[in-house]
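Backbone-to-sequence.
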């Protein structure tokens, strides 16, 4: 091919569009399930840097909740302390707290909400709307 042919720039349909930025890979410490979810979210949504941190925290909260559930399934809801008194296992609190954190992070990321209305009221939760 001649140097003149190489100098010809082919028109592109992407004129004026920003160059495609590769999606960040999920953090290495996440489970395979969380990594798949991370990639699904990044396919569907355009997230900025601070959103990626929230997404990572949501993945970690989900994994912590799952680990607590596994421990509860193995060891039960209670244990007997040294004096023979039944006590609630700490995994119960870990599971509850992780569920709350996960739900708040998903809401903060606005992954399943419509555009906010122009009112001062907080956005309605879809599942609580009347028919």
């Amino acid at each position: 091919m001649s140097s003149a042919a190489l100098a010809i720039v082919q028109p592109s349909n992407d004129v004026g569009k920003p160059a495609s930025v590769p999606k960040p890979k999920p953090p290495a410490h996440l489970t395979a399930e969380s990594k798949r979810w991370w990639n699904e979210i990044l396919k569907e949504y355009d997230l900025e840097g601070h959103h990626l941190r929230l997404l990572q925290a949501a993945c970690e909260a989900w994994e912590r909740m799952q680990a607590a559930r596994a421990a509860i399934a193995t060891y039960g809801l209670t244990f007997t302390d040294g004096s023979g008194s039944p006590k609630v296992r700490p995994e119960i609190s870990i599971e509850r707290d992780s569920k709350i954190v996960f739900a708040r992070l998903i809401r903060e990321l606005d992954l399943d909400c419509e555009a906010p209305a122009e009112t001062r009221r907080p956005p309605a939760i879809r599942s609580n709307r009347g028919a």
